[in-house]
């Protein structure tokens, strides 16, 4: 087991204080009580060393023999005793940590997670981290034991007949690819595509049932199931055959489990989408008919008015023959026209509801074609076995399976019809019993199923998005077990202590806010006492650095993007993360230029064909590299390597100047898609007539730490916490800023509980101050200029705390994502106590932040500045994506589009690294020359700039070296600045 460079960084970045002391002793430096003393053991006089040790460790009886450089281990022992630490003992500690990691690996089998768990265990037990080789062997043994455990459990439960079922997937090269290859993923919700999805579901059903029986016995998390499924998703059939039987079965079972749920989600989304589409179409048709009728009536209104005037025309006497009047009437409107108008006016007496149902009758064939196959595939469930809707679903399904129409005299089905719809869904004949109108009832029933699926009263057990909320959470037993090992957030603090602290802070903030508002101390606020209206004055930046930054980068000598990628790889060797999918004996030696060409083709919207035309690398070479090396997980590791390298540059700490905390920012960026996929959606504003997706990004100190593609219509606030919690780099933001799209009724609570500060930028402070709660009764704030909106309900939080904690622990264990959590919470009724309690807790934290934000102009400025940084990154990513034509991500499936997005982030990170390296070189030069003025100017420059980098042209991948020398670049820059 070999650690990558980024994983080694994790080892040394997360060390405890005593661990740092130990390492300092090893390299000849001493650290005591957070104070650094740099000295060489051979050069420092013995009396000076004795003075330092006696000053910082007065309780130890130091003497010259004790501090001799030959008494290294004795000194280390005394220091460890002082801090209460102990050395690593292989015989004692190895079994203990293997037990701990054996539990941790069931949650997440990725190397990074196990490494962090091991470091956390050393810290909590006050044990010095063992050597690099020992850490390798511990983690290797942990993974080996886990694989062996899973293989044994699976082999015991897989019988001969079930093994043959699994082997069917590996029978031919096309069997698995039809289910797992990227090109086979659904592209839309159209009829033919959904028929293919239904066929896939039928073929996977026997394996899914086997996985449903075996996987719960393995005690592995959903995170691990997704991880193992991804391996089967990318490996070829030949590679899977080479694995041992237990490991192969594990991958296939996890794959079948996840794939079946994903297809079920697609069918459920298609079912809801088609009903919504038909409803919208019928509304448009009905409105069109109304408009057409109105125009016809308006056109004939004058003639009808003339007809009516005949009855009040005094020129005709009462004895006038009726025939004479009729002749004049027929000159105004013909006899046939009057008959037609009479019929139309008689039809207008029908209600709008009746007209709507008549339109439904004209769509019957489409309803049955699009909706019935989906309805038959969805296995609806309910928490109540006596649910009348569930019984009706089973009755109707059974009728359709037998190729029959459901009974039109079924009283059970008739009872479900509300009274107001009885005239439209029942057919009445003279002297006969009323019967159900089967065509109308079927569509109405589908609409009811959709509504109950969305509100949670019906659910799909074999789904991810539409499963019951209860089944998505940990069991009470699993929750208690997880709490013993959780060492994040505030899980180990009592609720009373947390609430008391928050209440005290909110109470004090209200007092301070009211006092300062009355005294008029808020110079950054405008308060209209008559209207009781509060607003912010416009934030003025102290100095506009945009022009100075543009002038700086224009002075830099130009470099092409190929040389920049080569330079960054020379500095941090990110290409080592590109691992092939081929077997170990058939690996192709990685060619750097070929990989660079594929990265650029995906990020710059060229595609492999176009890149082959505008470069000196043929198409078949590009395609081979794309299939072998480009996966979402691989590209995320590559980005992490570059990100961690940027964090080590001397300029990086200065990106945080002017901030109290390390700020991250989240925001979504719209991209159109080359071809339609499940996640792509229409938006006339952003994509015109086409479809698109959203690249949701977490940025910190100008660096995009995490990015993922989300549905074009999903609310961005559903992914804010996931972006922060899934950050795998060594740069950990403390505060997370966002625009108003990042705010919902639970995000403040989620970030607070896991140790982050959620800091959105409020655009309307008057609206926000009216949402602020208080801890006391409202009557206590009668003399305040601005009063709280309500008193938060502490009692409700305490009563529902067990349910709230269960949700938070499930989220911490990665058994559920924030996106799924919020959507399932929304299925609860507004009166649900758990949902209300979560919202109350969020209101408490949000109220504290809102008052701080309104009172502190520096906080406003920092949040504003943080959001400006992510907007600058969006401009860079947009410029990269538009090289090939328009702002677009290429790919036929959602996974390919994600690969395109990650390649764009990779090039952006490479440009940011290159600029940061130049700024770091200048920083070192100005420090050596004590040029304080230049230093002050340098700190204002952002690394997000690309005007000095050639992105467009014909790409020649001839050289293996970048040819970039930062010393030469700096000398050239200084020459131009002084010229």
Q: How much helix, percentage-wise, in residues? A: 55-70%
- Gyration radius, to the nearest Å? 35 Å
Give the overall shape.
globular
N/C terminus separation: 55 Å
Portion in strands:
5-15%
Number of spatially distinct domains: 6
Q: How many strand elements? A: 19
Mean pLDDT across all amino acids: 82
Which class best fits the helix and strand makeup?
alpha/beta
Q: How many strands, which pairing sense, and closed or not: the largest β-sheet?
A: 7 strands, mixed
Descriptors for this entry?
single chain, two-stranded antiparallel ribbon, alpha/beta, 19 strands, 6 domains, 7-stranded mixed β-sheet, 979 residues
Give an overview of the whole structure:
- With 979 residues, the chain is of the alpha/beta class.
- The chain is 59% helix and 7% strand.
- The strands form seven sheets. Strands 10, 11, 12, 13, 14, 15 and 18 form a seven-stranded mixed sheet that branches.
- The radius of gyration is 35 Å and the shape is globular.
- It starts with a helix and ends with a helix.
Entry summary:
By secondary structure, the chain is an alpha/beta fold. 59% of the residues lie in helices and 7% in strands.
Topology:
Layout: H1 5-13, H2 17-27, E1 30-32, E2 35-37, H3 46-56, H4 72-83, H5 90-107, H6 111-124, H7 132-157, H8 160-167, H9 173-180, H10 191-214, H11 222-234, H12 237-242, H13 245-309, H14 322-332, H15 335-347, H16 352-362, H17 364-377, E3 380-381, H18 388-401, H19 411-415, H20 422-425, E4 426-427, E5 435-436, H21 438-454, E6 459-460, H22 469-472, H23 476-485, H24 495-519, E7 525-528, E8 533-536, H25 546-555, E9 559-560, H26 561-572, H27 592-603, H28 607-614, H29 619-629, H30 632-647, E10 663-673, E11 681-682, H31 684-687, E12 691-700, E13 703-710, H32 720-725, E14 735-738, H33 747-753, E15 757-760, H34 765-769, E16 773-774, E17 790-791, H35 794-799, H36 801-812, H37 818-827, H38 833-855, H39 857-881, E18 888-889, H40 894-928, H41 932-938, E19 949-950, H42 966-978
Parallel strand pairs: 9-19, 10-14, 10-18, 14-15, 16-17
Antiparallel strand pairs: 1-2, 3-6, 4-5, 7-8, 10-12, 11-12, 12-13
